[in-house]
Amino acid sequence: MSRAALSLREVTVPGRLHPVSMELPPGLVVGLVGPNGSGKSTLLAVSAGLLPGVGREQNDVRWNGQAVATIPALDRGRRASWTPAEARFEFGFTVRSVVAQGRYAHGDDGAGVEEALARLDLVALAERPVNRLSGGERQRVLLARALATAAPLQLWDEPLAPLDPRHGLEVLSLARSLSRAGGTVVFSLHDLRLAQELDFVVLLEGGRLRAAGAPAEVLTPKRVRAVFGVESCLRPSLCLSLP
Amino acid sequence: MRAFGKTRFIRHSGLALVLAGVALLVFALASLTWGDVRLGPGQLVDGLLGRDEFAATILWQIRLPRLLTGMLVGAALSGSGLVMQVYFNNSLASPGLLGVSAGSAAGAVVAIGSGLATFTLLTVPIFAIAGALAATFGVILLARRGASTERLLLAGVAINALLGAVTSYVLSAPTVSYERNAQLVFWLIGGLEDRTWEHIWMAAPIVPAVLLLLPMGRSMDLLSLGATEAQSLGVDVPRLRRNLLGLSTILTALATAVAGTVGFVGLIVPHILRLLVGSEHRRLVPLSLIGGAAFVVGCDLLGRCAGGARLGVVTSLVGAPFFLWLLRRAER
Questions:
Q1: How far is A124 from chain B (nearest CA, A)?
Q2: Residue A62: phi, psi to the nearest 5?
């Protein structure tokens, strides 16, 4: 299927990722799960075209069937967006100007910025310097910048980890609305209960792809015990959602 | 650095540019009229237009070359410092501290000391660029991008010592004549005395280099908030880094080739401007160029008022205490 929003064929990163192949159709919210050090961040970075192959070997990563290695840097900025797990800002740019950086590849610095600020609840912080924000606020700035790129493929490294429950749910609902609009959102997370709610789950272990598919098929109690070393079962519990 | 989180004093970038421009204009006019022979406004205009032969000689032979050299040197050193700070992701990086100025000086000293400089106008700048490139690669070998401040400054100390030794060797070599030695020492201290139109032609490539730098502000902004992020947002990071490093090295080399070693400009000017207008390079790049020119012309004026203290002496006297203050601030 060449129409896959993201496809990886035998992608290898020495010491971190053993040959991984997978195809993600467009319009999905995809959760990337796995124990610490299982290669989630590496998989996201390589999917974003940020880790080129070693030597002559080009990692075969494709967006919409097109090999990423053949896409010019500027086009990549319009087609996929990646956010790191931890945001470190050395310089005191304002929140608004950092979000406007998402428009670099489009050659403007206005379109969609205000909407992105509003969507991530950053309007009140728009003029604050980014190096004075809390970890969760910095993460929201990164996500707002990713949103401002308007890229159809969004790759987020543990976006929910530093967020409070309310903002976490808002980001999740943002991911869902992006996927409904035809985009593909892939993000890593540690909350298996939340992963259970997503469209698609990719399970990594030790740099290898263990399983990929619908959450109920991937996160079986047997596999969760084998990979994470924890028991799991389904039963009614506290459910949080936006009012 | 935490210091950059401070509120900006000037929010409007147009205002900051106008202020810097006005400062440069005032210093430039003062630089043209002050001196052993004071020129009034009327004499200045007549002299520039060639209607007053005496004033014209002073202006066109002495003061204009001095002013233009100063402006080119200031813009080049300040722009070079700003670029290095982005490249190394460290706000204390600058041509003087990293030894790039010393490399240019060593190259130029070899060119002058060996007598090669007498053949063609281009020899000194070419040797200066070669020396600056050697210093730049040395720093990159010793301290990678994003290295800690200590590591970066220690690398600078080592490079400065090594290239200083090259300069000292040339100065002490018995083959160098006494006259040439005097010329070398005079030049090494850094100054704008006796600059001619030849020197301006020598430094002329600063103008295209600076023009290339102007549109790079936005990509510098992205790079300064993380290389991987910048790459994912569409910046061709390896290419940008090559360009930045090449431009900053050439700017420092050309400035040093015509004015000797003038320290601290690339550190002080971008720093003060960052405190005034914030960290956005789209604003900082043009401001640093104009501000650097104004700073150097101003320091030169200060030296002339203080009985002929040379430019390199003045910038060091102003810059070294400022640098110590910055280090203290960074520690807190």
A1: 16
A2: -125, 140
Token pair belonging to B6: 């401070």
Chain A residues lying within 8 Å of B5, measured CB to CB: 92, 129, 131-132
Contact B233 A77 (CB under 8 A): yes
In the numeric block, the tokens 């090259």 are attached to: B166
DSSP A202: E
Averaged pLDDT, B293-320:
92
DSSP state of A132: G
Q: Does A69 reach chain B within 8 Å, measured CB to CB?
A: no
With cut-offs at 50, 70 and 90, classify the pLDDT of residue B145: low
Contact call for A77 and B2, based on CB within 8 A: no
Q: Cβ contacts (< 8 Å) between A97 and chain B: which residues?
A: 221, 280
pLDDT above 50 for A217: yes
Question: Which of B148, B229, B284 is the best residue to mutate to test the A interface, defined by the most A CB atoms within 10 Å of its own CB?
Answer: B229
| Domains of chain A and CATH, by start | 6-89+150-228 (3.40.50.300)
ipTM for the predicted complex: 0.88
Q: Find the closest chain B residue to A131 by CA distance.
A: B5
Q: CA-CA distance, B327 to B330, in Å (whole number)?
A: 5
Query: Are B111 and B128 a contacting pair, CB within 8 Å?
Result: yes
Q: Are strands A153-156 and A184-188 parallel, antiparallel or unpaired?
A: parallel
The stretch B213-235 carries a mean pLDDT of 91
The residues, ordered by sequence, that sit 6+ positions from A152 with a Cβ below 8 Å of its Cβ are A5, A26, A79, A80, A182, A183, A184
- Give the closest of A76, A91, A105 to B224, CB-based: A91
What is the C-alpha to C-alpha distance for residues B274 and B118, in angstroms, rounded to an integer?
42
Spell out which residues of chain B touch residue A132, defining contact as CB-CB under 8 Å: 5
What's the pLDDT tens digit per position in A51-103?
876 555 667 899 999 999 889 999 999 999 999 998 778 778 899 999 999 99
Q: Residue A240 has what pLDDT?
A: 83
